[in-house]
Design brief:
It is a single chain. This protein is mainly α and 223 residues long. The protein folds into two domains: 66 residues, no CATH class; 123 residues, no CATH class. It is built from ten helices and no strands.
């Protein structure tokens, strides 16, 4: 009997939602497929914050670069938990990557979000949040005008007593990913892939500290 080419049975990464694997798959639909769950772009096998970022990156990355995301999909299957650091780290890394290269208007919103993240991250003292705080500060230092505007707009009291970051802060993530995709840089795809790689790596360290770590890319704030 003629063998079956298993590659032909696997879904192909493409933007948007899909009815079934034969029509293609976004990053998280592919994850639901690998996890053996009901076909969905919001599967229960992945933390909502990581999943939100993955969907956005999948949708705005070029067709040529999107295939590079496939190797990350197995690492988000089973990446679940209620650790309060996860939404903070995801939002902070995304906004830090976007802030220095985004338009002025978008920079202001991102800077405001980063100031809140910076203060909330200060409640923790582990390696992941420590690295994330350094990344946030480096990004803000590269956009001093945006940070000054955000502090004046929100007031020092709102920065020192920030509102909690939502489990899946879509506003920060969407502004960050679109900001990177639309930035006047030569390598938006590379930055998006690096961002998602770093987020997955750091969240694996938080939620699955005893597993083999995913390779992290710590080049979020480019020169």
């Amino acid at each position: 009997m003629q063998g079956v080419n298993t590659e032909q049975l696997l879904p192909v990464l493409s933007p948007g939602r899909h009815r079934n694997p034969r029509r293609g798959a976004c990053f998280m639909e592919y994850a639901s497929y690998l996890a053996g769950l009901r076909w969905s772009d919001h599967p229960s096998c992945t933390h909502p914050s990581v999943a939100a970022l993955a969907r956005l990156v999948n949708d705005v990355t070029s067709d040529e670069a999107r295939s590079r995301l496939t190797t990350l999909i197995p690492s988000v299957v089973g990446l679940v938990g209620n650790d309060p650091r996860v939404p903070l780290v995801v939002s902070a890394l995304a906004a830090s990557s976007a802030l220095p290269i985004s338009s002025d208007i978008r920079q202001r919103a991102l800077a405001a979000g980063l100031l809140r993240c910076e203060r909330l991250l200060g409640n923790f003292s582990d390696d992941v949040t420590g690295r994330t705080r350094e990344t946030v500060r480096a990004a803000l230092d590269r956009a001093p005008a945006a940070e000054a505007w955000a502090r004046a707009f929100e007031g020092e009291d709102s920065v020192s007593k920030p509102r909690p970051i939502a489990v899946s802060d879509e506003a920060i993530l969407r502004a960050s990913v679109i900001g990177i995709a639309e930035a006047c840089v030569l390598d938006p795809d590379e930055r998006l892939v690096n961002l998602l790689t770093s987020v997955v790596a750091e969240c694996n360290l938080i939620l699955r500290p005893d597993t083999i770590p995913v390779q992290s890319v710590r080049t979020l704030v480019h020169t």
